[in-house]
C-alpha cells in the first residue's frame, strides 16, 4: 500500500504595533477603539483597545495588506476614521510599527452679557478666561473674521470684549476641559460679576456662578456645535476714589441711609434732652 504524504507550507505569521498619540504633544492615549480590516474594508477583528501605553499589539497576522480603522476616540478627542494601512510580509523579522494621532475635541462657546433685571444686552464688558489647571496665565486669542469671533492662539491677546447688537462674543474651537471666565471690566454703571466656572465635554457640560455655585446644565446647539452662557450684571452706583471696583449696590445704599438716619435721630434726642435740662 502506497502512502501519500502531502507537505503543507504554512506562511510565517507577522506582527504589528499601533501607537496612539496626541497630535500636538505626543502624549500616549489610552482607550481608543479600532477594528482591524483587510484593505477591502472587511472586518477581521473588532473592538481592539489601546492600552495604558497607547498601544495595540498583534503578533499572529498572516502575510497580506491590512488597515486599522478607529471606531471610538479616546475621551476628550475627535474621532478620526481615516484608515491606517500596513503590510505583513513573509518571514517578517520585526513587528510593523504604525502611529495614529488625534486632536483634542473642540466646541464653540458664546458669552452674552445682559442686565440681571431687564435681561437686555449690555455693551462694554471685558473678560479673561483661564484653564482651571493654570489660574495664573489667561488664555490668549486672535479674532477670526469679525471682532466678536475669537480663537485660541498663543500670539494673541488675553482680553475678550462683549459688544455689538447682542453684546456677545464667541470662542471657536475651544477644547473640552475646565475653564474660569473672569470679568475684568464691567459695563458703565454696573458692578463686576462673579467668576464663571465652566466644564465642557461631549456628554455633560455645565457652568457654575462662583466656585461653590450650583451646576447649571449647558445645552448644545448641535447644528453650530455651540454652547451659550448668559452672564448677568447688577446695577451699581459709581463712588469716586473708593478703591476696589468703585461700585455699591442699592441694598448697601439703603443700609447706609438707615444708618445715617439712626445717627441723626440719636443726636436729635440727645440735643432735645439737653435743652429740657
From TrEMBL:
The keyword Membrane applies. It holds the Pfam family SpaA. It comes from the Bacteria. The chain crosses the membrane at residues 253-270. Residues 15-101, 108-204 form the SpaA-like prealbumin fold domain. Keywords: Membrane, Secreted, Signal, Transmembrane, Transmembrane helix. Belongs to the serine-aspartate repeat-containing protein (SDr) family. This is Cell wall anchor protein. The lineage of its organism: Bacteria, Bacillati, Bacillota, Clostridia, Eubacteriales.
Amino acid at each position: 500500500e502506497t502512502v501519500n504524504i502531502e507537505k503543507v507550507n504554512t506562511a510565517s505569521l507577522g506582527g504589528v504595533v499601533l501607537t496612539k498619540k496626541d497630535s500636538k504633544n505626543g502624549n500616549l492615549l489610552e482607550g481608543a477603539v479600532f477594528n482591524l480590516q483587510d484593505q477591502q474594508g472587511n472586518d477581521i477583528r473588532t473592538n481592539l483597545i489601546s492600552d495604558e501605553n497607547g498601544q495595540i499589539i498583534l503578533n499572529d497576522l498572516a502575510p497580506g495588506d491590512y488597515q486599522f480603522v478607529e471606531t471610538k476616540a479616546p475621551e476628550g478627542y475627535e474621532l478620526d476614521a481615516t484608515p491606517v494601512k500596513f503590510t505583513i510580509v513573509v518571514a517578517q523579522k520585526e513587528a510593523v510599527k504604525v502611529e495614529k494621532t488625534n486632536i483634542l475635541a473642540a466646541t464653540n462657546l458664546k458669552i452674552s452679557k445682559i442686565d440681571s433685571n431687564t435681561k437686555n444686552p449690555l455693551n462694554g464688558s471685558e473678560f479673561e478666561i483661564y484653564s482651571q489647571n493654570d489660574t495664573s496665565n489667561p488664555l490668549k486669542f486672535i479674532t477670526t473674521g469679525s471682532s466678536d469671533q475669537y480663537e485660541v492662539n498663543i500670539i494673541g491677546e488675553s482680553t475678550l470684549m462683549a459688544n455689538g447688537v447682542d453684546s456677545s462674543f464667541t470662542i471657536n474651537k475651544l477644547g473640552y476641559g475646565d475653564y474660569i471666565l473672569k470679568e475684568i471690566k464691567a459695563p458703565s454703571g454696573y458692578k463686576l460679576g462673579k467668576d464663571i466656572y465652566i466644564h465642557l465635554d461631549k456628554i455633560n457640560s455645565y457652568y457654575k456662578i462662583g466656585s461653590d455655585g450650583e451646576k447649571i446644565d449647558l445645552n448644545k446647539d448641535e447644528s453650530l456645535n455651540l454652547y451659550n452662557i448668559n452672564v448677568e450684571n447688577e446695577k451699581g452706583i459709581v463712588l469716586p476714589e473708593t478703591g476696589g471696583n468703585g461700585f455699591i449696590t442699592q441694598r448697601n445704599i439703603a443700609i447706609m441711609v438707615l444708618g445715617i438716619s439712626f445717627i441723626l435721630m440719636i443726636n436729635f434726642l440727645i440735643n432735645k434732652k439737653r435743652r429740657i435740662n
